[in-house]
Target: Benzoyl-CoA reductase/2-hydroxyglutaryl-CoA dehydratase subunit, BcrC/BadD/HgdB
Amino acid sequence: MENRELWERLNMDLVKHDEFLAPVPQIFTQLFLERKDRPAGMGYFDAVVGDVHGIRVHELFAMKEAGAKVFSTFCVYVPEEIVVATGSASIGLCAGAQFTVPSGEKVLPRNMCPLIKSTMGFKLDRICPYFQVSDWVIGETTCDGKKKAWEILNEHIPTYVMELPQKKNAKDSKLWEEEVREFAAFIERETKVTLTAENLSEGIEKINNKRKALQRLADLRKHNPAPIHGLDVLLINQLSFFDDPVRFAAQVNALCDELDERVKEGRGVAPADAPRILVTGTPQPLPAWKLHALVEQAGAVVVGEETCTGERYYKDMTEPAGSLQEMLANISKRPLKVNCACFTPNQGRLEDIVHMAKNLKADAVIDFNLQFCQPYGVEGYFVAKELEKQNIPFLRLESDFSEEDQGQLLTRIEALVEMIRG
Ligand code: SF4
Ligand code: SF4
Model:
């Protein structure tokens, strides 16, 4: 089946979809393909983006034809291991495109985080084949904006909401474990597949392997000169939510083998004196490449992301266990180690930022906040205080998915880079 036939069968708005995709090849070529000395291992990820609404959607469609389901998630807390264990697919659908924000604003307040508006717009416009191929959205009670947006989204696609606690005490862990168990029962009902110790341990292993591969890639970035551009790693992190987990892990490991060689040869994508930047803050979902592109355009290199399109997604593993019940308990423990600003207090995130800055030998931190995101915006106060205490230079930036403020952002980033260069 050709892509267009598939998109028609998925009830997409093809006119709008063409309009949305038209500028992507040129942007992608400029930002990624024209960069010099990119690792050959990026070829796979470039090909995925080159047919981003094709190959993988065909695969998901074929899975559905064979009886599986597709579950769309929007947060790293949702336990994808459980879905994968049943032979169904879990895909992360947070969206980072300005194109769909106006449609999102038709049903959501304008003064709301662009990530939520963009996501909503993709569904209302029917231009995301991943949304169209999905059977269910799995939401969570993280920030208020998302929590309420699920109610509207539920009018357009069945939406299941997991109740995430706001603290990390014993009773909160208990609540979350119950939520995970209820979710597991829901997935069993929907997929008509019973979870067993065998299939769940396979699910855990597949997702752990994906996380390990991403950890390996992240660890290679501590070398100087940096063996890979931050923008390339951001792209890989973004694709980690869409791709088949086993194939994806193999491709990330192949890329890491190549980067190991580069490190041995002392070969980098930026000079050894290029300022090294750690990014923290709100996620940057596909295709939000603006911040990384500007930082690297300014002559610096992004060496890490303390975000959900970075470290928070893969820093912790689910511990293996012998029985189904213990596995579910362990699955519930992993996400509560993730330090999202939706939690209070959230001291662990400050520790993560400082640890990453030191480990990656970052010269400065950029605390990036999506406009109108209250949890990360407010927490910026503590991030700044901690970085001052640690004598780590930092810059706070706020933006959205539009291109309008690129010049302004670049000026501020260049000032930071100059300051580091002294
Ligand atoms: S920032 Fe928080 S709410 Fe958003 S994806 Fe990450 S963990 Fe989930
Ligand atoms: S960026 Fe902030 S406001 Fe937007 S969905 Fe994430 S936590 Fe909520």
Remarks:
- Residues 75-77, 142-143, 283, 308, 312, 338, 340, 342 surround iron/sulfur cluster (ligand 1) (CB under 6 Å).
- The CA atoms of residues 261 and 267 lie 9 Å apart.
- The longest strand covers residues 364-370.
- The domain at 3-196 is CATH 3.40.50.11890 (Rossmann fold).
